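Our example copied in:
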Amino acid sequence: MAWTAKQMLLAVMMVITGSINTLSTKWADRQSAEGRDGNVHSFDHPFLQAVGMFLGEFSCLIVFQIIKTYNRVRHPNQEPNLGNQSFNPLIFLPPALCDMCGTSLMYVGLNLTFASSFQMLRGAVIIFTALLSVAFLGSTIRKVMWTGIFIILVGLALVGVSDIIFGNTGAQTDTNGIIAGDLLIIMAQIIAAVQMVYEEKFVTRYSIPAMQAVGWEGFFGFIVLGILNIIFFYIDAGAFSKLPTHKLEDPIDAFIQIGNNWKILLATVGNVVSIAFFNFAGISVTKELSATTRMVLDSVRTLFIWLITLFLAWQDFQILQLVGFVILLSGMCLYNNIIIVPAFRYCQERRRAGRHMTQVGGEHERLVNDTASGTGGFQDPTAT
């Protein structure tokens, strides 16, 4: 079935805004500007960037409330069908906290490693989600899914090894930092898997509209992490922090740097706006098409990010990373039962159908020959 113009637009929006989200965050990390101490230094504020991401998610809730109010004003005598509204918003606090920790770790990792590796290593969430689903949801993992998980592990290992071997040949020369960034991203996927399992066990039962759910998680994440940013200002992180004050986070320094460099401002705004549109497009793609299509488009996004980082010379071409990505994508396809398994079943059915047609044709030819020779017709037993 061919896609409609609306579905095509949503798919393109998801790929573009998702790519912009990762690239804009990395672009800001690569910038330098004068800070509050009067000296120029790199923009190293992953926790504030995570707050911006939650602000973008929170905007989905604002849009949802606007749509809800509009429908009530336009149809005052008709209750709008906006899904289940009888729930306690606090059910979104635990997944918001998971999202907060996972996103913060990922943004710290992104500041240390390549944008393409960041996107590829996020595929590890499938492994941890599968294991936690078996333990806490009683899910059954079929053999082909275990095979997909193993292949994903191989792909992740190749991506990580490529960063270790070739990491010091590109724009980023700190191999230890790249390794640490990759490990932080992998650790973040464990937290993301916990979030997904929690949402499946406790949130999905309420049938809450997806945009509203994303908005509530963004609201709690924005409030909690915003408060933590103030606390982080008083925590001395030592050598872990690249900031002049060596604080865990310095929001004042971040806003001064944003004001002194339009590129950082543009990247920050791009991060907030793109995550809002990315969530909207992702939810709409799942609704209009399928969750499988959303996963495929997310893989296309990874490819786009890799190609753009190569074009911008943010990293060198690494054949091992490309091989790792292909293997990683193959494992995802196996696990999600798309492309590979359906294609194998289709070929089997075609082969089986062809074998059946050959047998039918042979049987028909035998009957025709028997009839022509008189051995296949009725014979009178009294005939001599």
